Hints:
The complex is a heterodimer.
Chain A: E1 6-11, E2 14-23, E3 33-40, E4 45-53, H1 60-77, H2 87-102, E5 115-123, E6 126-132, E7 136-141, E8 145-148, H3 168-171, E9 173-177, E10 185-191, H4 193-196, H5 201-204, H6 207-232, E11 243-252
Helix pairs in contact in A: 1-2
Chain B: E1 12-21, H1 29-46, E2 53-62, E3 66-74, H2 91-103, E4 116-121, H3 143-150, E5 159-164, H4 170-177, E6 184-187, H5 190-209, H6 221-224, E7 230-231
Parallel strand pairs in B: 1-2, 1-4, 4-5, 5-6
Antiparallel strand pairs in B: 2-3, 6-7
Amino acid sequence: MEMKNFKEAKIGQYNIFLGGLSEKGINKKRNQDAYRIGIDENKEFAYIIVADGLGSCEFSDIGSSRVVEIIEDWILNKLSNYSFLSDNVANILIKRIVEAWNSSFESNEIHEYDTTVHLALFFKGRFLLGGIGDGMVLVDADDIIHKDLIKDNDLFSNVTNSMCSLNVEELLEFEILSEVSCQEQISIIIATDGISDDLIPEKKLTLPRYFIESINKDGIKGLQDELKDWLMNWETEGHSDDKTLCYLVVEKEVS
Amino acid sequence: MGLKDVVIKEARPLPVLLLIDNSGSMANEKINTVNLAIKEMIAEFSSIKNAKGKISIGAISFGNTVEIVQPIDKIENVNIPEFSASGKTWMGEAINMAIDMLEDKNQVPERAYTPTIILLSDGLPSDCPGKMDSENYDFSEWEPLQRLHSSERLKKCPKLALGIGEGTNYNMLNAFINNSEVPVIKANDLSTITKFFQWVTYSISKRSVSNNPNEPVLEDPKEMFSEEEVAYLIELAQ
């Protein structure tokens, strides 16, 4: 497993590109976001995970790192027990995340570690996507499906569900995309609300396609450099949130 | 298209909605003082630089008619007319109108920070069943307040209220605030109206430049007001 903030590899008939980056908010002591990316050609999986520690919680930087670690640990050690991704596997993962989260901290202090989390997992041709809380999970599959999996929650910014929500097990939601949903290309972007809240709603759905085009034109390093510049020179007036983004692009070789 | 074309350049809005009683009993000095205090508040808000939450203002008046006198807009576009006072106190209709405004994502986008709602009144609502027996009526049961406090979007909004003069029912204004830690401010003389707006201006200005404008910042009322000028929640039906 290589720990690097972008990577490309081949898994069977799929070319995989994935990357991530995070920028601490201006004047903030700590970056409360956390992310991980990973790929294993032999076990046929690739993943991106993004967690956004709640700004009002004292130790949410530890919480966001912890939940990312919990999910990564499950992927690395348990995923290969299953032959393919299914709703049943998603339910097992949810249970594991909640159990491990609740046992990570003292119950009287756990709310100070609160965080959101989202992930995209590719395994043997299928995808598992979802999580809990605000931010965005953008999907473009074959230029046919364009969506943000995070539903409009009818609230204002920074009011969100999270790992410490009372009904976290119900609020943690994952969706499975089968091979049928992706005949040729799929592009997935996960970002924290430090990014998603400042995007023009009608334009943000074009981003996954833009990422594919950018990789095709300038390579993954080119995209990564452009993203770094974008986050470092964020143009929204008065912005000061942490900003974290990961992407996973999968292209099927056409024989 | 480049990545920068997708980013909204303006800071996230921090909306403030004023509900102003301009019924007949507010005539003369009361409404004149309110008019002046609003002007000063807007001037203060306009001078804030580098705010994380960009203040936007809306205003609804309720007197002879219930009217949106200022749709929610960024501070540089705000032009609230001077109020004159006449008619009854159609507060329930004004609260319902405020809920509709704040729940409308075209007026208050999802990226906005939590709005503050400010209510000023010198009397009892003319459109409330409790006006017949205001001492015994449970204002938390009043339909517009029930709607306000059960709205997913609005129940966490900070709410502030100013009662002006002897005719004010403080149980009703406390039911509007619905927070035992935030008092209604009692203006038995005109200077308290001015002080109330200074308190609001200071608190919201501080919020707009804070790291998290969603966290309510309220200057301690004790620093600003005497004991006679504050009325805390006494009892509210849960």
